[in-house]
Write a structure and sequence with these properties.
By secondary structure, the chain is α/β, with parallel strands linked by helices. It has 16 helices and five strands. It has a single domain, classed as HUPs (Rossmann fold, 3-Layer(aba) Sandwich). It has helices at 29-41, 45-62, 78-89, 106-119, 130-143, 150-166, 178-181, 195-205, 218-227, 243-254, 267-281, 286-295, 301-309, 315-328, 333-341, 354-369; strands spanning 70-73, 94-100, 122-127, 171-174, 231-234. α3 links the parallel β1 (70-73) and β2.
Length: 386
């Protein structure tokens, strides 16, 4: 039965998310969840400076006597580059870690090198085995799920954990943030931590073995977070983060150049989000990104709708990226067309650790209610009653 189209009266999420729900006021579950999580996890503005100062002192103390005191991930995008700028402003001594998955645009490479050199930050780049990673990406395309970019997300996290372990560090600072990424349907982007899911898809649709692909199992995750006490820090949640203001600082002070869209520093991401998602899955991920900005007060609903109506990803760019991607993946035009016509699936159609990961979250939330948690929450407040 076809569902009647509906759009949220507060943000711009709509029924292209198959799991969206609306209340009697027409407000969607994403808005309600965003508001609830913001109250539970984000400190009041007047308390953020104190919490930030405490965090900085904790990082400096833990890294005392070492060459670096924290790891930062850098992609060349706005969020991660602004994190690099902030950590230097805060007097931290970061090692920047970048994952080269073979899809960096020339501008992204230039932005990373230029900004880190200007900030005086050392860079470690992990280059993936292209043939191995190519097979994994093709496997996810054949699996026909809208979360086909998670092999990159998982590898990035694994590489940062490894870099922290090599340098004896506990603090990993990420550009992920609640203000601009608080709205995202589960079925659009599941699996960043699920090695079982990645293995399952590769086994069903890929070739060869994943010998060099950086990964971590649930046991590895427990070792990193509970035994080694490593934690990912969402630094941008500790400051009043405005994406437009951050962009201005990067352009004016660091000579950073804009790509024209969120995550467009990667050619594959630009093509996947700009072509494959809308054409095959009827998903425009900009709806989630813009809705996050609406929920965080950085944009009005009317402004979001106006921006959604304009698409900087032109037909000419789509054509160029399509030809480039098919050639780079060594697919024929016929094979790519067949992939695009496969029935749509989700992560629920494959073996995963979804239930186990949800149970871990439930246990951690319960422990936190009693004032104890083996894993520090990613957000600011330590007294959350989720």
């Amino acid at each position: 039965m076809t569902r009647t189209y509906q759009i949220c009266t507060c943000c711009i999420m709509d029924t292209t998310d198959p799991d969206i729900r609306f209340d009697d006021q027409g407000i969607c579950n994403h808005c309600r969840t965003y508001d609830r999580w913001a109250k539970q996890h984000l400190a009041q503005v007047e308390a953020r400076q104190t919490l930030l100062s405490q965090l900085v002192e904790e990082i400096k103390s833990a890294g005392s006597g070492k060459k670096y005191d924290c790891i930062i991930g850098v992609s060349g995008g706005v969020d991660s580059t602004y994190v690099a700028y902030l950590v230097k402003q805060l007097g931290l001594r970061p090692l920047a870690v970048h994952l080269d998955n073979g899809w960096d645009s020339e501008l992204a490479v230039s932005n990373v090198e230029k900004t880190l050199k200007k900030l005086g930050i050392d860079l470690y780049t992990h280059v993936l085995d292209w043939e191995e990673f190519k097979e994994l990406q093709i496997a996810f395309l054949r699996a026909s799920t809208p979360d086909a970019e998670i092999p990159t997300d998982h590898a990035i996290e694994a590489v940062m954990y490894r870099a922290a372990a090599r340098n004896g560090l506990r603090h990993i600072i990420s550009g992920v943030n609640f203000a601009t990424e608080g709205v995202l349907p589960l079925k659009w982007a599941y699996g960043g931590k699920d090695w079982k899911y990645i293995q399952s898809v590769h086994k069903m649709f890929g070739q060869g073995k994943l010998k060099d692909y950086p990964h971590f199992s649930l046991r590895d995750l427990a070792n990193f977070t509970v035994i080694r006490k490593m934690q990912f820090i969402r630094l941008l949640d500790y400051v009043p983060y405005s994406r437009d203001e951050a962009l201005g600082i990067l352009v004016n002070e660091l000579g950073w150049q804009y790509y024209g869209g969120k995550h467009s520093e990667s050619i594959y991401t630009r093509f996947f989000q700009g072509y494959i998602l809308p054409v095959k899955f009827n998903i425009d991920k900009r709806k989630a990104h813009l809705s996050s900005l609406v929920c965080s007060g950085q944009m009005t609903r009317e402004q979001a709708l106006k921006e959604l109506a304009t698409n900087p990803y032109t037909e000419e760019m789509q054509k160029e990226d399509r030809e480039y991607a098919i050639k780079k993946l060594a697919l024929s035009e016929e094979e790519f067309t067949r992939i695009m016509s496969l029935p749509v699936k989700s992560f629920l159609d494959y073996p995963t650790h979804y239930r186990q990961l949800e149970e871990i979250k439930r246990v951690v939330r319960k422990l936190r209610r009693f004032g104890f948690s083996p894993i520090k929450p990613y957000f600011i407040r330590q007294d959350s009653q989720e």
